[in-house]
Design brief:
Elements: H1 5-18, H2 23-28, H3 33-46, E1 50-54, E2 58-62, H4 63-78, H5 83-106, H6 118-134, H7 137-162, E3 167-170, H8 174-269
Parallel strand pairs: 2-3
Antiparallel strand pairs: 1-2
């Protein structure tokens, strides 16, 4: 039995997280290693669990491919710093879901008609659209994963509107692989583009930092020179002040000496 590519991708991601190789990405998404590993484990285990929500038309929810991505998306949106990022992530998820729903109408139903499995194409497209719409790492992940889940939900709404019998499996079967692929691609694109942009901007900022550093080094030197010169002038003035009282003191002592001599002379006269 062939292991689904979604499980393989999650196991690879778990290894990267465990050895700390994904720390930078998780930090940008406001996730720590334990939380990320817990969500990965929930995705893997939940991928084998299904819950039937509605009988007719049948609506089945896969825990790992549907419920866990929604819970993780809500967590990422709640922990977002800015309200604009929350709004952008929600709108990006809806836009991605609509794009995937329209793409599913254009793609052939049989995978052999394409060089790549339809579900993989859906995951790749969802990841790219998720990044373009979400922009940030969290927004991209939310848009990519939830977009695939919303596409299944849009399909079920279509069945209800047309009163057509059928079955909708949210996040189940191959859609699980599409959800995982979409989330990974969206985050990887956001990381690569964001890292490249930060390095390009960091090149100019480093020049400014060097200039500020030189100015900071020259500033203290100038102040030290000024303080040394002022200290030297102050010490010279204090030396002049200290020398003048001593000379006056010595000059003032001569009358006393003369007075003593006068008294001695007076003594001799007497």
């Amino acid at each position: 039995m062939r292991m689904p590519i979604g499980i393989i991708a999650l196991l690879a991601a778990a290894i990267l997280v465990y050895f700390g190789l994904a720390h930078r990405v998780l930090d940008r998404m406001r996730l720590n290693d334990r939380t990320a590993l817990a969500f990965i484990l929930a995705l893997i285990v939940g991928g084998f669990l299904n819950v039937t929500l509605i009988r007719s038309p049948e609506l089945t929810l896969n825990i790992g491919g549907g419920l866990v991505p929604l819970a993780l998306a809500i967590y990422l949106l709640v922990t977002a710093d800015e309200a604009g990022e929350k709004t952008r992530g929600t709108i990006a998820a809806i836009a991605t879901g609509a794009a995937i729903y329209a793409l599913a109408k254009l793609l052939p139903a049989e995978p052999p008609a394409m060089f790549l499995d339809t579900l993989y194409v859906v995951g790749i497209v969802a990841g790219v659209i998720g990044y373009i719409a979400g922009r940030s790492r969290r927004g991209s992940f939310v848009a990519g994963t939830v977009g695939v889940v919303l596409a299944d939900l849009f399909h079920y709404i279509e069945l209800l509107a047309r009163r057509t019998p059928g079955r909708t499996w949210i996040g189940g079967a191959g859609a699980f692989d599409a959800v995982v692929i979409a989330g990974i691609i969206a985050v990887v694109l956001a990381e690569l583009v964001g890292e490249s942009r930060e390095r390009l901007q960091g090149g100019t900022s480093k020049k400014d930092e060097r200039r500020e550093g030189m100015a900071g080094m020259l500033g203290p030197l100038d102040s030290d020179v000024g303080s040394d010169s002022s200290a030297a002038s102050g010490s010279g003035a204090s030396n002049l002040r200290s020398s003048s009282p001593s000379s006056s003191g010595s000059g003032g002592s001569s009358p006393d000496d003369r007075g003593d001599g006068g008294s001695r002379e007076g003594g001799d006269v007497s």
